[in-house]
User: Which sequence fits this backbone?
């Protein structure tokens, strides 16, 4: 079973920052937080991952709370192409290799 | 194109027929995964290979399903005696085993199976 809770859907205006929350209150000390997204009719795409420090790459920023029980994915300047289902996943880096997806958040970027 | 490729992209079959899907991972990746995704749900793990060895199988993978990766490169997923409940998108992913942070999985476009 997925270990994360996400809102079912969110809307954001084009050009604004999209902030997607994720709760993972049972996360273990050796589990990372991963984010993937799935654009309609495509396979999931890796976005970013982190352990306890905030992370940023060319796609997004990941903010993890100090207690690690929740995190927020930030798309700084959302475009229409960012419309997708966003999945928050917790997993250990070594050992179990499978990704356990929940239902994700359906993010719609509006013009 | 150096991404994960899957063939065919779409397959329509009649109940009771056998189908086989192929996945070609990113060339240097030694791990390969199969997932299944039904409408409105997130992908569900089916099985994974490290090189040619099948290391984990989900209980979702009934005895009608078999996966192979004979030379540690491409993989096939066969479904025998298909049922309407097998209708889904079948996704393949690959990754590079690494001891450093990363190891993210790269997904192919999927094969959409429709069983009539």
Assistant:
């Amino acid at each position: 079973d997925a270990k994360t809770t996400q809102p079912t859907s969110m809307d954001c205006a084009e050009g604004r920052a999209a902030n997607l929350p994720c709760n993972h209150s049972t996360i273990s000390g050796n589990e990372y937080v991963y984010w993937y997204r799935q654009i309609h009719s495509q396979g999931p795409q890796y976005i970013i991952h982190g352990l306890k420090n905030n992370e940023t790459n060319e796609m997004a920023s990941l903010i993890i709370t100090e207690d690690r029980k929740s995190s927020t994915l930030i798309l700084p300047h959302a475009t229409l192409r960012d419309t997708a289902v966003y999945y928050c996943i917790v997993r250990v880096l070594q050992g179990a290799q499978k990704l356990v997806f929940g239902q994700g958040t359906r993010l719609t970027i509006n013009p | 194109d150096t991404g994960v490729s899957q063939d065919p992209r779409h397959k329509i079959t009649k109940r009771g027929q056998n189908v086989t899907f192929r996945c070609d991972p990113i060339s240097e990746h030694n791990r390969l995964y199969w997932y299944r995704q039904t409408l409105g749900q997130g992908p569900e793990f089916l099985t994974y290979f490290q090189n040619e060895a099948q290391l984990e199988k989900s209980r979702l993978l009934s005895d009608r399903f078999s996966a192979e990766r004979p030379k540690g490169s491409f993989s096939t997923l066969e479904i025998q005696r298909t049922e309407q409940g097998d209708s889904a998108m079948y996704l393949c992913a690959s990754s590079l085993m690494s001891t450093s942070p990363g190891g993210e999985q790269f997904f192919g476009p999927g094969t959409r199976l429709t069983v009539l």
Summary: Strands of chain A lie at 9-13, 18-23, 31-38, 45-50, 55-56, 61-64, 70-75, 84-92, 105-110. The interface with chain B takes residues 2, 32, 34, 41-46, 49, 51, 85, 87, 93-94, 96-104 of chain A (CB under 8 Å). The mean pLDDT of chain A is 92. The longest strand of chain A covers residues 84-92.
